[in-house]
Amino acid sequence: MNTILFQHINQFVSMGAKEFEEIILYFTPEKAAKKALLMHIGDTVLHDYFVLSGCLQMYFIDHEGMEHTVQFALKGWWLADYLALQKKTPTEFYMQAVENSVLLKLSSAKRDQLLCAYPKMESYFRAVYQIAYGTYQTRMKYILSYSKEEIYFKFRDSFPEFVNSVPQYLIANYLGLSAEYVSKLRRKRIS
Predict the structure, then answer these.
(1) What is the bridge-based pairing of β-strands 67-73 and 94-97?
(2) Per-residue H/E/C for 30-75
């Protein structure tokens, strides 16, 4: 399973198998059962998670009790509350396994050690964060520029791996749509 991280790193920086054997020692394997909470509002964020299999969701609950998904992580993606991780402050989010998931956990302390020992990992993480930020910008563009129908279909066409892996009601939540509306759109497009 660690070959997934090895391949992911090599998409951005060159790394040999021997070097990776040393780098993987900084990570802690973890399994999360479906619906397991990995992070609660108020927790101090100490870890970043890399998904080897499964899916994670980060969300918050507003003052009316409505759940709002802010981010997902599928196989080969990273997830954390990066602001809270950087500032070492309590998070305002929950993180939950959408399905049974196998993860690699990287603590803040281990990350600092890793980056000192292997400076090329700075380039790797910079590339990962740039892509994540770009994805966020695209999501905001969809929400601010398109009709509800366009939001769903543009997202579906741009990120088919999500539509095929994440339950429909969570995709609807992530896009600010109701599950009923997304179901209606899917039926409309099929007919």
Answers:
(1) unpaired
(2) EEECCCCEEECCCCECCEEEEEEECCEEEEEECCCCCEEEEEEECC
Structure confidence by residue, pLDDT tens digits, 42-78: 998 889 999 999 999 999 999 999 899 999 999 999 9
C-alpha distances (whole Å) from 119 to each of 11, 75, 80, 114 are 16, 25, 21, 8
C-alpha distances (whole Å) from 60 to each of 40, 51, 70, 87, 122 are 9, 20, 8, 19, 29
More confident residue, 46 or 21: 21
If we measure between CA atoms, which residue out of 167, 141, 161, 160 comes closest to residue 57?
167
Q: Can you give the three-state secondary structure of 82-127, one letter per residue?
A: HHHHHHCCECCCEEEECCCEEEEEEEHHHHHHHHHHCCHHHHHHHH
Residue 151, classed as helix, strand or coil, is helix
pLDDT confidence of residue 106: 97
Question: What letter represents residue 12's amino acid?
Answer: F
Q: pLDDT at residue 1 above 60? A: no
3-state secondary structure of 79: strand
**What are the Cα distances from residue 3, in Å, to 20, 45, 187?**
9, 26, 39
Question: Greatest CA span in the chain, whole angstroms?
Answer: 57
